[in-house]
Amino acid sequence: MTTTIADADAGTEARRRPGTLRRERIGHLVQHHGALMVLAVTVLLGAVAFDSFTTPQNAANIVVSSSFLAIVAIGMTFVIISGGIDLSVGSSFVLAGVLAAYGSRYGLLVALLLPLTVCGAIGLLQGLIVARTGMAPFIVTLAGLLGMRGLMLAVSGEGANTYLVQNGAFSALGQTSLLGLTVPVWITLGLVLLGGVLLQRTGFGQNIYAIGGSEEAAVLMGVPVTRVKVIVYLISGLLAGLAGALNAARLSSGVTILGAGMELDVIAAVVIGGTLLTGGAGGLTGTMAGALLLGVIQSLINQIGVLTSSFQQVVSGAFLALVVVMQRILHRAQRLS
Description:
Layout: H1 5-49, H2 56-81, H3 89-103, H4 108-133, H5 137-155, H6 168-175, E1 177-178, E2 181-182, H7 183-201, H8 203-213, H9 215-220, H10 225-251, H11 262-272, H12 284-304, H13 311-336
Antiparallel strand pairs: 1-2
Helix pairs in contact: 1-12, 2-7, 2-8, 2-10, 2-11, 2-12, 3-4, 3-5, 3-10, 3-11, 4-5, 4-10, 6-10, 7-8, 8-10, 11-12, 11-13, 12-13
């Protein structure tokens, strides 16, 4: 019986296929659930090393402190999956806190609507510029960062005035606990569920992935690229504004320095969670794991005692560099397979 070249190639492919499929499954597992696995290992190490680490109070502190970062990171996940970046979220967060505290003298609705309106409008403007002019999101949102920082300084008298929250209902929004968790945590959980459905179960979410994967191909498929881009930057601005307002409610003041540089932590949480910086892949489950991981690292640094809080930036940077390198290796391996 004669064996043709095609038969030999088919046999070789059949022998190679199990190994290739195994590598793809491992790569998929690391890409989408690596942050969750690292989080579990880090928590286990912390529990073994420090008795106070696993106390309910410490766990609650980690979850509460991470919730504000997580809210902003939800919006950033949408932006990065679409192939963009939003450097203005840190300034939006600070500006929203100042505006919320200032507006609280006029009631709960003003305290919430004022920061959401301003930050949402700026996010909308950035989205329009990015989508309609084709300018690099890095440049557009960097300009937004500087502009909102200047607006915050103007509102707060160059940072000299710290507005106190003057509405009890608004303060309660950031401080009231339900079943052991504060209201911002429950809001975060609700936003994660809503955002997950939006990304995974709607045409809008699939359009975001399509644009991040290949904008040219998305245009050929009839995806409304301009509209989708505008909406994702609007979402990012709104969520950064909401997080800042809730943080002001928790602190009962609009602190002008808290949140400066937050955009770097947000991007780190999203990328550590498995979302590709190049766009087209990612999800909110990984983002939440990334945000919690940064909170756990900060808690461990506090437990150690001899390290300053700035050391968290060193650890976060190391994690981020490692994740980006791993993403690159996995992407190259998938292309070769």
